[in-house]
Amino acid sequence: MGNDGGSIPDRRDLVRTKKKAEQADKHNQLIARWFFCALSKRPLQEPIVSCALGKLYNKDAIIEYLLDKSAYGDGEDICGHIRSLKDVKTLKLTPNPSQVPEGADAETHARFICPLTLKEMSGGVPFLYLATCGCVFSQAGLRSIATSSPKDDDEKDICPQCSTKFTRAKDLIALNPDPEEQTRLRNELEARRAVEAASKPKKSKKRKAEEAGAEPAPKRTAADSKAAPYTNHAVATSRVVANALVAEEQKRKALMSDAVKSLYAPKDGTAKKETFMTRGTFTRYA
Ligand SMILES: [Zn+2]
């Protein structure tokens, strides 16, 4: 390889270029995505589930994660968007009937195929699943049996495997999409969650109001006749306002009675605290 006078080595022979390393890395990533659980990094074993971002997981790993969020060190980064088993779909996969070739790595032999095109699911061709039933097809296979035009978003399609209805516009989720698509899906998911979260506080406010309304109720019945006019007056207004008024009235009375009590406290008790500054000036506080 040079230095013997026979040939002149150039940079290409001596330096392992980055490109080769990148290619090997890409291949490893492909294997990792299609043959291993994204969370536990163990080989995919049925039942296999997928999330809204199209990543593949072993269902037991997801359950483990949901029970203990720290079960996997980087669990929050990988599937922080999975809050419950409702956020994943169990996939219905078609087993690959072909045997592992002699000498081939069993772990990287495609175990599933598209039931329509019989293409192997190994990252070579794009695959997707239906969010409604979890059936997995190759993109090309599902496109070939398209019954409605892709522009017609509202029209329902029927799953070619289990006849469950689905909407082409929103129920098709690509498995292991490219990073750009994954980012788009993640943003979409976050936007959807934000809308959900924005609609929730209304409910909790209502609940708080109900709780606030329920708590002071016994006090109202215990309140003496002086408080009654306030509650009667407030009947026309909301129950919450009435309860707030009662609570306020009671607070005011409690404060007042303290002040009044201090006036009528035992003489020897007050005499000790009294100084020339306060002597005979109690009327200021009444
Ligand atoms: Zn189906």
If you had to describe this structure to a student in words, what would you say it looks like?
The protein is mainly α. It has 3 domains: 31-99 and 107-176; 178-213; 215-263. Helix content is 43%, strand content 10%. The protein contains 10 helices and 10 strands. It has helices at residues 11-14, 18-35, 59-67, 75-79, 139-144, 179-214, 217-222, 228-233, 239-263, 267-273, and strands at residues 48-50, 56-58, 89-90, 94-95, 112-113, 127-130, 136-138, 156-158, 165-167, 172-174. The strands form 4 sheets. It has a 3-stranded antiparallel β-sheet with strand order 2-1-3. A 3-stranded antiparallel β-sheet has the order 7-6-10. Strand 8 and strand 9 form a beta hairpin. Helix 6 crosses helix 9 (239-263). The chain is elongated and about 120 Å long. The chain starts with 10 loop residues before the first helix and ends in a 13-residue tail after the last helix. The site of zinc ion has 7 residues, from loops. Zinc ion (ZN) is lined by residues 130, 133, 135, 159, 161-162, 164. Residues 9-20 have a biased composition (Basic and acidic residues). Residues 1-20, 191-229 are annotated as: Disordered. One of its GO terms (cellular component) is nucleus.
Largest sheet: 3 strands, antiparallel
Q: Specify the structural class.
A: mainly alpha
Low-pLDDT sequence parts: 215-237
Query: How many domains in all?
Result: 3
CA gyration radius, whole angstroms: 36 Å
Q: How much strand?
A: 5-15%
The helical percent reads 40-55%
* Secondary structure tally: strands: 10
For this entry, what is the oligomeric state of its chains?
single chain
Shape: elongated
Helices, by number, come to: 10
Strand order of the largest sheet: 2-1-3
Give the helices and strands as they follow along the chain. Answer: HHEEHHEEEEEHEEEHHHHH
Terminal Cα span: 107 Å
- On the 0-100 scale, what is the average pLDDT? 76
Bound molecules: zinc ion
